[in-house]
Amino acid sequence: MSKITLLFIALFVATVLNAQNENAPANTAGKMLDSDKKLSIGGYGQLDYNQPLEKDVYRNGIMDVHRMVLLFGYKFNDRTNFVTEIEFEHVNEAYVEQAFLNYKINKWLNFRGGLMPIPMGITNEYHEPTTFNGVNRTLVDTKIIPTTWRELGAGFTGSFNEISLKYQAYMVNGFNGYNGTAQINGNDAFRKARQKGIKSYISSPNLTAKVDYYGIRSLNIGGSLYAGNTQSTLFNGISRSDEALISRADSSVLKMTMTALDAKYTHHGLQLKGQLVYAALNNTEAYNTFAKNANTNKGIGSAMLGYYIELGYNVFRQTKIAESELIPFIRYEKYNTQQKTDGVTIRNDLYNNTLIVTGLGWKINRGAIVKADVEFLKNAASDKYAKSLNVGIGVWF
User: Fold this and answer.
1) Pairing mode, strands 352-365 and 325-340
2) What is the DSSP string of 300-330?
3) Over the stretch 280-333, which tens digit does the pLDDT of each residue have?
């Protein structure tokens, strides 16, 4: 390693260690849990304009009230809180995105149960539109980590502020892998398999956990784990001694382990963010054959990989506009839902994608932002980028 490289590393480390410290990551639900009010009300919203850009073909743009969300928190006493999040998507779809009870046992231990976001990566828990650059959430956080991914379960969470550590660990119901139709494939990955608390069925519980470390000034680091089986309705009502039906039901189940690392660094207007997620899947050969996906270019891979790195800078930092930020940014992203394949699945280059996004965000204040960006998306089967223009308005309160 050259002396110049070592010097740059030393300067970066020195900058990190001497930068102004960032608090632990926070979202609306967390703020409601920390509030002294009996009843707390919050919300966020996002209005988008998405326009494909093609040289030789006219394409209609889409204007959409993408989501409008209300959150309510109720404090029963100093130990017991309830938080719920109600979302309206595209004006005509309504969902409950969170509904959980939190009981504070002591300073570092809380029991939590209900419908909760899976603590995986950055965006799934911190998805308010003013907290991320770009109009759209990343593709890694859309396909592999299918934001907003929430399931029913219970477990424990807490913080050790003395060592700047936050943890979460829950047992939850898993993805809907098969309910008469296979819900997981190479194109959609896990997105259509979220159960969302809508009459969720469970055939085996899954484990999810995350640790966040925020003890290095201006730097937050997270590590996530999700492990278990996808769920299948084929187990319902079959005899424990019927080996043929059990074998058939087993073919409709994927055994999975998903891990993720994320980091966010903010200092003197500079914003760096990155994420890496890897999902290892077992029994994909039987699942793809059972789902008749193996020979149709829809097969799920035996491993998925996704990552991105993003650079932004607040050019208003040196101005007297205290509450306002103007952030040009660029993000490079890759994801492949067939990073590895089994012995029967045909690899499809359409599932190996590269995305470059560059744009500008004007954060009028902490709770309101106007965004614009251009996306360049290409898969491994093409040598040309598909381009699109995105403009959006986001609020958070």
Assistant:
1) antiparallel
2) PPSEEEEEEEEEEE-TTTTSS-TT-EEEEEE
3) 999 999 999 998 887 788 899 999 999 999 999 999 988 877 689 999 999 999
**Is the Cβ–Cβ distance between 201 and 193 less than 8 Å?**
no
Cβ contact 336:352 at 8 Å: yes
pLDDT tens digits, residue range 9-28? Answer: 444 444 444 444 445 667 99
Pair type for strands 165-173 and 150-160: antiparallel
How far apart, in Å, are the Cα atoms of 388 and each of 72, 290, 312, 370?
Answer: 36, 37, 20, 17
Using CA of residue 28, residue 30, residue 32, residue 36, what is the dihedral sign? Answer: negative
**Domains of the chain and CATH, by start:** 3-396 (2.40.160.10)
In order of 31, 288, 385, the CA distances from 193 in angstroms are: 30, 15, 29
* The token pair that represents 187 in the structure block: 């194109």
> What digits encode the pLDDT tens for the residues 61-108?
999 999 999 999 999 999 999 999 999 999 999 999 999 999 999 989
Rounded distance, CA 296 to CA 291, Å? 10
Name which of 297, 310, 367, 387 is nearest 46 in CA terms: 367
DSSP secondary structure letter of residue 186: T
Q: Quote the tokens at residue 73.
A: 């928190």
Instruction: With beta carbons less than 8 A apart as the criterion, state whether 369 and 363 touch.
Output: yes
Among 7-21, 135-149, 234-248, 381-395, the range scoring the smallest mean pLDDT is: 7-21
Buried b (16+ CB within 10 A) or exposed e, 97-115: bbbbebebeeebebbbbbb
What are the structure tokens assigned to 386, written together?
A: 């598909």
Cβ atoms 115, 96 nearer than 8 A: yes
d(CA 357, CA 373): 7
Please report, rounded to a whole number, the percentage of residues in the chain having pLDDT higher than 70.
93
Decide if 394 contacts 44 (C-beta within 8 A): yes
End-to-end CA distance of the chain: 48
Q: Which residues contact 197 (CB under 8 A, 6 or more apart)?
A: 96, 99, 115, 150, 151, 152
